[in-house]
Specification:
Keywords: Repeat. The chain has 685 residues and is mainly alpha-helical. The chain has 18 helices and seven strands. Helix 1 packs across helix 3, helix 12 packs parallel to helix 14 and helix 14 packs parallel to helix 16.
């Protein structure tokens, strides 16, 4: 039964020839029947109408088997069979039995049955339509035909099934409700076989059929004209055309489905991003409204905000990826998708940019709060340092240290002013930012929260202003006190300087004011200079006294005891008494010198002829007494109230002054002698 086939040969009526080779082994009639049904289903109705010639090859079988096969043909293909040729073996069966049986059944069978030898089969069928087994020339390879038939059957089955699946997939979106369409497409979206593989198989099969050869590889003879009908080349072409058409539609459906799926995925992701940003993301920002009350609190809020930003960054990364995907779809998408894509892109961008702006605003607000608290802390430390200086008693060593301390105090106060101004600027900037928070309040009334922040900022600035005002008041008091101390030190220094000056005047009086003049005029000039010198000393003494009196007043104001005025006043009075004693001695000597020089000059200028001169001899005695008294004073030291002594000038200076007086006294004595000589001469006469 394996070789039961349609060889492609034709009888003289152009009917197809069906060959049934029988063998020694037992033949299954059921299998034979099924095989005949299959073979008879291959030709077209047109071919079937021309009838079949059946060749039953019984050369290797028994008569009863042949008879059974012939009778079976009546049940399987009674209308299509026109002639049954039974090829008998060389060992002829019982002619009587066989002839009687077939003749007897002729009318009932409906077709003619003849017994014929293989070499006489050409009487009924042309040799070119018979295979070599029956002495013909028709080339036929049953295995090759069977393999091609199997390929055809597989292709037909797969292509038919694939066409049904593709049709269901392609038409699934056109019928039923949306839910049914989606379910139909989901269940049959992937065909059971690969369309590309089926198409390739069909093309290869069609190529084989179009070559009109059973086996193109071994150079076989071309098929008969019936091969197209036997192997259904048009059916293969029709299936291929249908497959290509459905596959093209399927590819378009897949493309549309992929595009829709991608669009739905993008839409789903967009909604995930939007829902998170407008939900948990916004809720996180709603709960973060404070600015902290210190640097540490602001830093903690910044750290919390960074955690929130980190969570947002993950969603912003998704936004960037989605935006790129949407942009790619916009560049390559259909017009029907442009509106939806642009709407998604706009919605995503609006939400992301709004959330990013809120994050940036919050970050800027916290940074401004941190800067405000940093400035406030620095200012507080400056005020603490300034207050510490003001709380320490001032005990400077001199006026220079007081000036330095006062300068440092002024610098600190100026630094506090600058810091407070900076705090006000930072605070105002922070208040301005807080006032703008209402524009993105996440749907929440932030008036209460903002009021707490505003009250805190204003409270810090007011507290710093009050502390600064208290420090300013204390600085004013300290400045006044320090200026008084500077004035006190200045008075003490100037009083000490006055004592020094007076001491220098005294020293100059003793060491340089030693000349008594060469004549009365010069002595009077020296006397006048001395009086002016005494006036300078008096002014110096009075200035020192005034400074010391001011020192007493300042000490009383500062409630402190002067460190130097206690010994300065005695020193001033002691030097002044010494100067007074020395000055009086100097005046006395100059006055004596004036009297001496005046009398001496008067005597020396008188003419000897004047008679009244002889009557004034007592003037010589007077001038001698004055001269001696003056000489005596030059040798006597100045005795101070404390018992100490001091000489004018050096001994040589005093000797020079005394020598000049002695010379003047010698001239006076000589004059006296000249006046006495005429007086002595007259009595003798």
């Amino acid at each position: 039964l394996l070789f039961l086939s349609e060889t492609g040969g034709k009888d003289r009526r152009s009917g197809l020839i069906l060959t049934i080779p029988l063998c020694l082994e037992q033949t299954s009639m059921d299998e034979l029947s099924v095989t005949l049904d299959y073979l008879l289903s291959i030709p077209s109705e047109k071919c079937k109408a021309r009838g079949f010639t059946v060749i039953v090859d019984g050369r290797k079988s028994q008569w009863n088997v042949v008879k059974t096969v012939v009778l079976m043909l009546q049940n399987v293909v009674p209308a299509e069979v026109s002639l049954v040729c039974v090829v008998k073996p060389d060992e002829f069966w019982d002619k009587k039995v066989t002839h009687f049986c077939f003749w007897k059944e002729k009318d009932r069978l409906g077709f003619e049955v003849i017994l014929v030898s293989a070499n006489k089969l050409t009487r009924y069928i042309e040799p070119c339509q018979l295979t070599e087994d029956f002495g013909g020339t028709l080339t036929y390879d049953h295995m090759d035909w069977l393999n091609k038939r199997l390929v055809f059957e597989k292709f037909t089955k797969e292509s038919t099934s694939l066409l049904d699946e593709l049709a269901l997939i392609n038409n699934g979106g056109d019928k039923g409700t949306q839910q049914e369409r989606e379910r139909s497409i989901d269940l049959n979206f992937l065909p059971s076989v690969d369309p590309e593989t089926v198409l390739q198989t069909g093309h290869e099969l069609l190529s084989e059929l179009q070559q009109r050869r059973f086996n193109g590889s071994d150079g076989g003879v071309s098929w008969s004209p019936m091969d197209d009908e036997l192997l259904a080349q048009p059916q293969v072409m029709k299936l291929l055309d249908s497959l290509r058409e459905q596959y093209t539609r399927y590819q378009e459906v897949c493309r549309q489905r992929s595009k829709r799926t991608q669009l739905e995925e993008i839409q789903q992701k967009v909604m995930q991003v939007v829902n998170w940003l407008e939900g948990p993301g916004s809720e996180q920002l709603r709960t973060q409204w404070g600015i902290g009350d210190s640097i540490r609190a602001s830093q903690a809020l910044q750290q919390k905000h960074e955690e929130i930003e980190s969570q947002h960054s993950e969603w912003f990364a998704v936004y960037v990826e989605l935006n790129q995907q949407i942009a790619a779809l916009l560049n390559a998408g259909d017009e029907e998708d442009l509106v939806e894509l642009k709407a998604l892109q706009q919605q995503l961008s609006d939400v992301c940019y709004r959330q990013a702006s809120q994050l940036e605003f919050r970050q800027n607000l916290l940074q401004a709060a941190l800067e405000f608290h940093s400035v406030a802390q620095d200012l507080s430390q400056q005020l603490d340092g300034l207050l510490g200086m003001l709380c320490v008693d001032v005990a400077p060593a001199d006026g220079a240290s007081i000036q330095q301390t006062l300068k440092l105090l002024e610098e600190k106060l100026k630094s506090v002013d600058v810091g407070l101004q900076g705090l006000r600027e930072k605070g105002q900037s922070l208040l301005d930012q807080i006032s703008n928070q209402a524009s993105w309040a996440y749907g929440k009334d932030v008036t209460i929260e903002n009021k707490e922040n505003v009250d805190h900022i204003q409270g810090v600035m007011e507290d710093m202003q009050l502390r600064k005002q208290r420090c300013e008041d204390m600085v004013d008091v300290r400045r006044l006190k320090m200026l008084q101390m500077v004035q006190l030190f200045k008075c003490e220094e100037d009083a000490a300087q006055a004592v020094e000056w007076l001491s220098e005047l005294l020293d100059a009086l003793l060491k340089t004011h030693i000349r008594l003049g060469d004549d009365a005029q010069e002595t009077k000039v020296l006397l006048e200079k001395h009086r002016k010198f005494v006036d300078v000393a008096q002014s110096t003494y009075d200035y020192g006294r005034q400074l010391l009196q001011a020192t007493v007043v300042l000490c009383q104001s500062l409630r402190c005891t002067s460190r130097s005025s206690g010994d300065t006043l005695p020193r001033l009075n002691r030097v002044w008494k010494q100067f007074t004693v020395t000055s009086e001695e100097r005046v006395h000597r100059l006055e004596t010198a004036v009297a001496f020089h005046s009398t001496a000059e008067k005597i020396l200028q008188e003419c000897p002829e004047q008679p009244e001169a002889f009557n004034e001899m007592d003037q010589f005695d007077e001038i001698e007494a004055v001269g001696k008294s003056l000489l005596d004073r030059l040798t006597v030291p100045v005795v101070y109230p404390d018992g100490s002594e001091q000489y004018f000038g050096s001994p040589s200076d005093m000797a020079s002054a005394a020598e000049h007086i002695r010379e003047k006294m010698k001239l006076v004595s000589l004059k006296k002698q000249q006046l006495r000589q005429p007086e002595a001469t007259t009595p003798e006469s």
